[in-house]
Design a protein that fits this description.
Number of strands: 0
CATH topology of the largest domain: Arc Repressor Mutant, subunit A
Length: 197
Amino acid sequence: MAELNHIAGQLSAPDKIVPKHNELSVLIKDCIAQSRSAQKRLYDQYAPAAYGVIRRYMYDNESAAQEILNDAFYKVFTKLDQYSFHGAFEGWIRRIVINTVTDYFKKNIKDKPQHKELQPEDAYINSESLEKLSHKELLKIIQTLPDVHRAVFNLYVFENLSHKEIAMSLNMNENNSRWHLNDARRRLKEKINLISK
């Protein structure tokens, strides 16, 4: 588990400068009023971070990543009146983005009915090996995972979803979610240990 937290710390999105509450409130009200310039400002400010999250899931499929980004921002603009100003606006957008990503996976990934569960200790990653890797090297290794493994790994590590939540999001059972996570860890361990030798 510690190695996953380390990975998440290395790959978390950089902090963005978020407008002050008053500015954000005005911007959202203008977007709800269908101001094209306000919608463009909001998109320009928040789309890069959203796209970064999407690319973690869709690293090798730029057209799908762009499609997910467009779908996510369509939802953002059509649901802006539901934002209550409780909690960070970026977090609200991120939740929409993650839901859009999982909707994409539900439609496009078929999972096997039942997987044999691996034991967590089978997939321990040496933290010294992790420290030798750069951010880009680590991200590249994660992107080599099969689609379902990568989706489960990202949802578990970066979004802190439980296996129950992942199973519901990706339309699979909880044991399959655990299996995909553990197999992803095993694959990452092999690749990280091979690179750091």
